[in-house]
Write a structure and sequence with these properties.
The structure holds two protein chains of two kinds. Chain A contains 17 helices and 20 strands. By secondary structure, chain A is of the alpha/beta class. In chain A, strand 17, helix 15 and strand 18 form a beta-alpha-beta unit. In chain A, helix 12 crosses helix 13, helix 12 runs parallel beside helix 14 and helix 13 crosses helix 14. The radius of gyration of chain A is 24 Å and the shape is globular. In chain B, helix 4 packs across helix 10. Chain B is globular and about 75 Å long. Chain B has 14 helices and two strands; from the N terminus they run βαααααααααααααβα. By secondary structure, chain B is mainly α. Classes of the chains: A alpha/beta, B mainly alpha. At the A-B interface, helix 10, helix 11 and helix 12 of A face strand 1, helix 8 and helix 9 of B.
């Protein structure tokens, strides 16, 4: 590998945002015919570095060489001319257009718009690498994984041979992930250079040929994947040894806390999102919810939290004294007034759980600002709470008066979880609590959730990483197309079985 | 290094938070620059001595005690409407109906003064004026708010249209109440009896208005920044989803905030009609409802900064009027100067958020 010529050489790349140094004299080599995994904690500068390669940011200092020639990348257009294409976490597609139209969008061609030959070229690309995409399908009819495929084909169509994928598996099922990896391997074998940013260690081990680690904006080192292991990589990322085990203490005295019966929900378009869902969540237990994204997880949690109009069914809360309280049809305020302390960590952290432009202390007030009879708000206690969350959960922030949108993803999540558990809940709902979080922050969140469980909280944990769900949850409820596909004990559950249940009701091929 | 490989000549870099003195330094510099550009334009276009022009502007605004009082009154009225639209703006509800809400308030006050002057004692008449004008302004704002909350209609268009309705209503009643018949205007209402006129304090016609607005400024600052309502407004403005998530009733906050916004506009209408002008015309608001939108934005929705912005705008208006008469220039020239100054003030905000970093010289690069 040492004899190869680097497709991309980045030298002494520095980028600062205000007072924050996102990249500090970073060196990075990317080779053709190789999959490089770029690792680092949240805020370590991985995405910033790749954004500079793909023309979104311009480096303050440093040099970029492509095929040994120094280049200046001023815009994504420049980057594509040099063969660099990036697939972002958030797709940039026009919903009402077809795959073909999206792929050629913005390309300047000569003469008439020739959709047919474009579609043919797309089919060629798909056949070559094994993509599964219909050029004439409209984006809004596609699954998340198909949309991602369109994004990848888009950059290939534009002639990219250096591909950067920012957390491509965050939104995929295990089966879809396997398919993506197969395609990526095909592209590697065809001589393309591939960089993948990910937090999932087992994916790094399964897919990549080489890993490069960033920490606090600095390049720590790189090595062939086969010479290292998850523990070593994690330690490099974090800078000190980390224990990679998820605890699963036995539930202590579990009692039914939340009984959901025949819950049915339709969205605004009248499409059934939850169909006759029934289950019981016990105190002191973690109920994991598995399913392909968009199978009703969001609607389920929002129905319980009083944010989603429902068609029918019941959600019954049972307190320690055995008194029952119906939660359906009540808004969050009415639920709280009934003495039910229900905490909810929603999927959309900055759009729902927090206010991005407000500082930490003002965000702490969201739950508590009504307390007291004064017409003025109490600012002292939220400030104290913010400070204690920062101290206890190790939130990296310039101070509690910093707007939360300036924090990195992991720190935003710590602030949100910190606030939600501060109210000593009896039910804790979490949706994708570790999405986009690095391994260190993820384990911290697992720990926090486990501590809540030990306190006797009924935890409902919607997750996307099956490996984690299997290690963390006491029981796993699998959703498939809005229906309950099955509820199985977490201990001893097999990943393959859960994956099957996610795609077919009951997980049985005969059904 | 060949030409193609050069880095861009300038690229824009976001700044971190600036210390307050640097930010204000930039703003001060912008005003200075604006004055220099104005001076050049003045000399080139008119041949007049720019320093003299500036001196005349200052004269026009603060030259005599009377002029100072008028400038203060203008400032107070502008500030009043700006304060009124600000809570709505913080909620991202674009209330550009300040004009109509002021007119509604003024019309209600005038109606009381004309129709009830003989029916009730003066103290009751004044109370009625206050109550009805505030209620009328609030109602004028609550209608678009209700439709927004209920059916998510576009508040910008709705409040704008309400302005025209208010103007036409006033025009209609001016004809109904015109004195003498056929004059097309109402004239001073209750001129001999002074019934329904707000009391004059300290022998200064404008002092009451200024005091009311001063109290309102402080009150609004506290309301927006420290009260529970103010906090709800901020959350709803930032994200309705978050507001619902924590159990804030978004519809209620929208209507309540607009009631407040309209009520203050109504109060300004009262101060104009019962306090100073003692008549009502379609132009009594004089475009303040629109100028207030700009003031509120320029002050970044901060009531205390609004005091200075309102003063600046009032000063420019008065000063500009003065130079057009003193130097025999027409009104358009003073508008040009006002435009240049506002351009620099608004433009300098860019340099507070971003900085330009220029390409380093080739020599440095080679090293």
């Amino acid at each position: 590998m040492e004899n190869k010529i680097a497709a991309v050489k980045m030298r002494d790349i520095t980028k600062t945002f205000g007072a924050t140094v996102a990249n500090d004299k970073v060196w990075l080599d990317i080779y053709r015919g190789e999959i490089l995994a770029l690792l680092g904690e949240n805020g370590s500068g991985k995405t910033t570095l790749m954004n500079m390669l793909s023309g979104i940011y311009f480096p303050d200092e440093g040099h970029i060489y492509i095929d040994e020639k120094e280049v200046v990348i001023r815009s994504p257009k420049d980057a594509l001319k040099l063969g660099v294409g990036m697939i972002h976490q958030h797709f940039k597609l026009v919903d009402v257009l077809t795959a073909t139209e999206n792929i050629i969008l913005g390309l300047e061609g000569k003469g008439k718009l020739d959709l047919k030959s474009a579609a043919n070229k797309i089919r060629e690309i798909c056949d070559l690498y094994g993509f599964d995409v219909d050029p004439d399908q409209r984006i809004y009819e596609m699954s998340v994984s198909q949309k991602q495929t369109v994004e990848i084909v888009k950059v290939l169509y534009r002639g990219a041979d250096i591909l950067i994928l920012d957390e491509p598996t965050a939104v995929l099922t295990p089966q879809e992930t396997d398919k993506l990896f197969a395609v990526l391997r095909n592209m590697r074998d065809a001589g393309k250079a591939i960089v993948i940013i990910t937090h999932k260690m087992h994916e790094v081990e399964a897919l990549s040929d080489r890993v490069a680690v960033l920490r606090h904006g600095q390049f720590i080192g790189d090595m062939p994947t086969k010479d290292t292991n998850a523990q070593e990589m994690t330690n490099m990322m974090v800078g000190h040894p980390v224990v990679l085990n998820i605890d699963r203490p036995e539930p202590v005295d579990p009692k039914p806390r939340l009984v959901v019966k025949n819950l049915t929900v339709k969205n605004v378009d009248g499409i059934v999102k939850l169909d006759d869902v029934s289950f019981t969540a016990n105190s002191g237990e973690i109920l994991g919810i598995a399913g392909i994204s968009g199978c009703g997880q969001k609607e389920l949690l929002e129905s319980i939290a009083g944010l989603q109009p429902t068609e029918g069914g019941s959600v019954c809360y049972i307190n320690d004294d055995g008194e029952e309280e119906e939660l359906l049809g009540k808004n969050p305020l009415e639920i709280a007034d009934k003495g039910v302390t229900l905490s909810f960590v929603p999927e959309d952290r900055l759009g729902m759980g927090l206010v991005g432009n407000m500082d930490l202390s003002d965000n702490m007030m969201l739950r508590s600002f009504r307390s007291g009879h004064s017409i003025l708000t109490d600012r002292k206690n939220p400030r104290k709470l913010a400070q204690s969350v920062v101290d206890e959960l190790g939130v990296v922030t310039p101070g509690i008066t910093t707007p939360v949108r300036r924090l990195s993803g992991g720190n935003v999540q710590k602030v949100l979880v910190g606030r939600e558990i501060a109210s000593a809940p009896t039910v804790l709902l979490t949706a994708y609590a570790v999405r986009g979080l690095d391994i260190n922050s993820s384990y911290l969140i697992y720990d926090l959730i486990n501590k809540q469980k030990e306190k006797g909280v009924a935890v409902i944990y919607v997750g996307e990483d099956l490996d984690v769900l299997l290690e963390l949850a006491d029981r796993i409820l699998v959703l498939c197309g809005g229906k309950v596909s099955g509820i199985i004990p977490g201990r001893g559950a097999q990943k393959r079985d859960v994956g099957m249940m996610m795609t077919k009701l009951g997980g049985n091929d005969n059904e | 290094m060949n030409k193609q490989n050069q880095s861009p000549l300038v690229h824009i870099v976001k700044r971190g938070a600036l210390p307050w003195y640097t930010a204000w330094g930039i703003r001060g510099g912008a005003i200075l620059l604006a004055l220099i550009v104005c001076a050049i334009v003045t000399t080139v276009v008119t041949g007049d001595n720019p320093l003299q022009v500036y001196a005349t502007m200052f004269e026009g605004a603060f030259g005599t005690a009377r002029k100072s009082w008028t400038t203060m009154q203008s400032t107070a009225m502008l500030l009043g409407v700006s304060l009124a639209v600000t809570p709505a703006f913080r909620m991202r509800f674009w209330n550009i109906g300040g004009e109509g809400q002021v007119l509604a308030g003024g019309l209600a006050a005038a109606a009381c003064m004309i129709c009830l002057a003989d029916a009730v004692p003066n103290w009751l008449l004044i109370i009625l004026c206050v109550v009805t004008s505030i209620a009328a302004g609030a109602l004028w704002a609550a209608i678009p708010a209700f439709f927004k909350a209920k059916w998510n209609t576009n508040e910008t268009l709705f409040t704008l249209m309400m302005n025209y309705v208010a103007i036409q209503l006033v025009a209609f009643f001016v004809i109904v109440w015109e004195v003498p018949k056929g004059a097309g205007k109402i004239g001073i209402i209750n001129q001999s009896t002074e019934l329904g006129w707000l009391p004059v304090i300290g022998n200064q016609k404008y002092l009451l208005n200024i005091l009311v607005i001063a109290v309102l400024t402080v009150g609004m600052y506290i309301y927006l920044n420290y009260s529970k309502h103010g906090y709800e407004i901020a959350v709803v403005g930032e994200s309705e989803k978050t507001a619902r998530y924590v159990g804030i009733k978004v519809e209620r906050v929208i209507v309540r905030t607009m009631l407040l916004s309209g009520a203050i506009c109504g109060l300004v209408g009262l101060l104009l009609v019962s306090g100073t002008d003692h008549t009502v015309t379609t132009t009594i608001s004089a475009g303040r409802g629109f100028t207030a939108v700009m003031i509120s934005w320029l002050a970044k929705f901060n009531p205390l900064i609004m005091v200075f912005v309102s003063l600046l705008i009032a000063f420019l208006e008065k000063g500009a009027g003065e130079i057009s008469t003193q130097f025999g220039l027409n009104q358009s020239f003073s508008d040009i100067l006002t435009g240049i100054i506002l351009f620099f003030i608004i433009g300098c905000e860019f340099f507070i958020t971003y900085k330009l970093s220029f390409r380093k010289s080739e020599k440095k690069e080679a090293k």
